[in-house]
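I'd like us to work through together how a protein chain folds, taking it slowly. To get us started, please write out a protein record for me. Label the sequence line and the structure token line clearly, so we can match residues to local backbone shapes. Once you have written the record down, we can walk along the chain together.
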Amino acid sequence: MREADLAPFVEVFNAENRSARIESERFRQYPHDELAARDKVNLDITWLKDSSATDLDDGVPPEVIAQEIVDDLTAALVEFSAVADALAARAAGTSTVPRSPA
């Protein structure tokens, strides 16, 4: 999430002059009675769900995701090690052959 993602809310929130706030389809006030009448005073705004968002639960098991992360990090470590070796060799005035993955 970036600051630009919050810009529309910040503009409507109008912290300097709350009485000048303008309600819209996405941003509106809720009366206390309406909030209190909700089950467990649930503040979820499900009516605002972004229909373009994809379901993040795509059924991939956590152990598969974890292994993919390990594989990606291992590959990145190999690449960074090769860069570090090359920089060290250059600093020492020699050349080196990148080491092969272990």
Summary: The two ends are 37 Å apart (CA to CA). The CA atoms of residues 83 and 102 lie 16 Å apart. The chain has a mean pLDDT of 80.
